[in-house]
């Protein structure tokens, strides 16, 4: 009973597909008139380079030419691999999002934008953010420059006001000191409005004719010695 049941279960089990064990495949005869397949890129490269090496290195055997051609091809592949830039790796988060969007499109979400459009939008958004960051830096730099210029201008105005006040004080002091000394020749008396021209003319008289104005020089020295210029 047990044997029969086992035999029945083995007969009903699905048979494995494949070539039967022990049976040889029958090879079909080749058709001599059949067209030949196209040469591969490797064979075309070897054929061209073999002809070039044969012309430049006469007397080499066939196997030596083949070795040189194969070495040249390996060198070209290595150089091309070094020159070609390695594409940057995407962040894992971006890869997961792209896969999720692809799965949603496959499941039947026609309203979702395509991957190429999303990539373009992300690239545009990144470009805008970079430009915005650069502009923000320029704006901050300009604000710092404007603040510095305003501070320097305010300081310069304060210095100019102090200098102007000092000049007015000096004019009043000189006018008060020389108010009793008229200019020789014109008998002009100094005022706060004319003290500048008065001092220029007085200096010119003393420098040009010191011998003739000895008394004037002594008087000026006495007045200057009594000035309190602070």
Automatic annotation (TrEMBL):
Cellular component annotations (GO), alphabetically ordered: nucleus
Biased composition (Polar residues): 1-12
Keyword check for DNA-binding: yes
Keywords of the record: Coiled coil, DNA-binding, Nucleus
Compositional bias ranges of the Basic residues kind: 15-27
Domain spans labelled HMG box: 35-110
Single Gene Ontology BP annotation: regulation of gene expression
Residues covered by region (Disordered): 1-41, 76-115
Superkingdom of source: Eukaryota
Coiled coil (UniProt feature): 118-166
Nucleus recorded as keyword: yes
Chain residues forming the annotated DNA-binding region: 35-110
Recorded GO MF terms: DNA binding
Gene3D superfamilies, per database record: High mobility group box domain (1.10.30.10)
PANTHER family xrefs: HIGH MOBILITY GROUP PROTEIN 2 (PTHR46040:SF3)
Name of the protein this chain belongs to: High mobility group protein 20A-like 3
Species this protein is from: Homarus americanus
Gene: Hmg20A-L 3
């Amino acid at each position: 009973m047990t044997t029969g049941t086992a035999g029945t279960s083995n007969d009903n089990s699905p048979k494995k597909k494949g070539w039967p064990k022990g049976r040889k495949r029958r090879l079909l005869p080749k058709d001599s008139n059949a067209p030949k397949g196209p040469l591969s890129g490797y064979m075309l490269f070897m054929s061209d380079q073999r002809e070039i090496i044969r012309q430049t290195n006469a007397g080499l055997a066939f196997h030596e030419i083949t070795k040189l051609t194969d070495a040249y091809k390996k060198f070209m592949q290595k150089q091309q691999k070094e020159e070609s830039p390695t594409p940057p790796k995407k962040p894992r988060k971006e890869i997961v999002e792209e896969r999720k969007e692809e799965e949603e499109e496959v499941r039947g979400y026609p309203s979702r934008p395509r991957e190429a459009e999303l990539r373009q939008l992300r690239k545009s958004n990144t470009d805008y953010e970079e430009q915005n960051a650069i502009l923000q830096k320029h704006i901050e730099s300009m604000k710092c420059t404007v603040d510095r210029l305003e501070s320097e201008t305010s300081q310069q105005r304060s210095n100019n006001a102090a200098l102007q006040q000092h000049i007015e004080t000096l004019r009043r002091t000189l006018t008060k000191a020389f108010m009793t000394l008229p200019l020789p020749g014109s008998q002009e008396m100094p005022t706060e409005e004319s003290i500048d021209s008065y001092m220029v003319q007085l200096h010119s008289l003393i420098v040009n004719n010191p011998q003739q104005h000895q008394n004037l020089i002594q008087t000026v020295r006495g007045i200057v010695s009594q000035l309190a210029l602070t």
